[in-house]
């Protein structure tokens, strides 16, 4: 039997405390099993499976404080996943009696996520001032309960109670989105499915790095946005990430939620910092943008022009980059991205190499080489005059 193996109380407690790195570890281990389960019950409909997978991890994240107290985590995770599968099939039944097979393709889940995020956003900005400040210090600044209490002169119990109260409010608004109350038919369907999968489990899928944005979106669903945070938190957050993030907040207010921009000043060669502390240098006229689900566990970026990146913390996590309407994955610690020339170029810098993935092709790029995705959308490795290419960064 293929077990999910997440009875590690220490890790589950880290998730309950809001530690995103622990949730990513949890996601990497559990999602291949859940994906395989959903492929069975949803008749190999990959689009439907990805919808249900996204919903599953949103619910697991929103109810994260319950995880350490669950006696059978494996059964619980399967049950949550099958409930989401049932709801998806229930919703689509009038239009599509049986799920149909879709060709494998990049997928951006949109099931209830935007509704969740909009309602949760309203909950957060309507909180009493102190409770809102505590929650923002916890979720925006990543502060531990003890540190928040020390900063505000409150007991650990008071801080914990405030965070728990917000989580309850968030979960209530999610419940209000439910299309119908749980029925006996749903309970029977889910229970029968869990029993069948535990007795005859499918072989777990191989973890796909392209699934990581699902975990990132799950964690972002209840994360306050810097532009809407309390004045004290906004001041600390902007100072912590440098003055360009104050500009990002202004753009957020003018253009709406979900987009942040880092814009390089003319003739400046000073490194800026992304939210995960990755250093970035932008050539003149270049921009780097990211959605509000960018985090130290999901580096999703859009590059226009030329930008140089240097990871300073997690050097193993890939960057998911959109450049010239192309989607690519770069695994590297120090590299340059060049667009706007008709090709997209990835150039490793220093003595480090990089791995570049585009479409179904993955290639290693060593120092002195560059990966080029041509206008014909093919990935090639060619020699690179790194000194000439990087002459702008002095």
Automatic annotation (TrEMBL):
Keyword rRNA processing applies: no
Superkingdom field: Bacteria
Residue ranges of coiled coil: none
Annotated RNA polymerase sigma factor 70 region 4 type domain residues: 119-164
GO molecular function term, any single one: DNA binding
A biological-process GO annotation: DNA-templated transcription initiation
Keyword Nuclease: no
Domain FecR protein, chain residue ranges per copy: 266-345
UniProtKB keywords: DNA-binding, Membrane, Sigma factor, Transcription, Transcription regulation, Transmembrane, Transmembrane helix
Residues annotated as transmembrane: 244-263
PANTHER family assigned: RNA POLYMERASE ECF-TYPE SIGMA FACTO, RNA POLYMERASE SIGMA FACTOR HI_1459-RELATED
Family as reported in the entry's similarity comment: Belongs to the sigma-70 factor family. ECF subfamily.
Protein name: Uncharacterized protein
């Amino acid at each position: 039997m293929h077990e999910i193996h997440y009875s590690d109380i220490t890790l589950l407690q880290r998730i309950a405390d809001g530690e995103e790195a622990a949730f990513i570890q949890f996601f990497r281990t559990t999602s291949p099993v859940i994906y395989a389960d959903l492929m069975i019950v949803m008749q190999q409909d990959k689009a439907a499976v990805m919808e249900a997978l996204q919903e599953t991890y949103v619910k697991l994240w929103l109810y994260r404080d319950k995880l350490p107290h669950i006696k059978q985590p494996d059964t619980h995770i399967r049950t949550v996943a099958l409930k989401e599968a049932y709801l998806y099939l229930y919703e689509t039944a009038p239009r599509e009696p049986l799920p149909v097979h879709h060709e494998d393709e990049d997928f951006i889940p949109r099931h209830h996520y935007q509704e969740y995020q909009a309602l949760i956003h309203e909950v957060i900005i309507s909180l009493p001032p102190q409770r809102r400040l505590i929650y923002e210090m916890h979720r925006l600044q990543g502060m531990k309960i003890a540190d928040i209490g020390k900063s505000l002169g409150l007991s650990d119990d008071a801080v914990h109670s405030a965070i728990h109260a917000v989580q309850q409010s968030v979960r209530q608004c999610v419940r209000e989105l439910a299309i119908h109350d749980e029925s006996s038919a749903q309970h029977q369907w889910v229970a029968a499915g869990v029993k069948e999968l535990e007795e005859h489990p499918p072989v777990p899928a191989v973890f796909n790095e392209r699934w990581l944005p699902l975990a990132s979106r799950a964690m972002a669903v209840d994360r306050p946005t810097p532009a809407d945070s309390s004045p004290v938190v906004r001041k600390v957050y902007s100072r912590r990430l440098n003055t360009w993030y104050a500009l990002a907040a202004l753009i957020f207010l003018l253009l709406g939620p979900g987009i942040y921009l880092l814009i390089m000043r003319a003739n400046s060669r000073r490194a800026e910092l992304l939210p995960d502390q990755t250093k970035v240098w932008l050539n003149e006229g270049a921009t780097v943008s990211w959605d509000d689900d960018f985090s130290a566990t999901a580096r999703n970026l859009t590059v226009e022009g030329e930008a140089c990146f240097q990871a300073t913390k997690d050097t193993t996590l890939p960057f998911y980059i959109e450049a010239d309407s192309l989607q690519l994955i770069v695994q590297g610690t120090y590299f340059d991205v060049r667009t706007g020339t008709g090709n997209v170029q990835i150039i490793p810098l220093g003595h480090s190499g990089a791995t570049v993935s585009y479409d179904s092709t993955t290639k290693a790029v060593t120092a002195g080489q560059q990966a080029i995705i041509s206008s014909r959308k093919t990935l090639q490795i060619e020699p690179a005059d790194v000194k000439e290419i990087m002459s702008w960064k002095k």
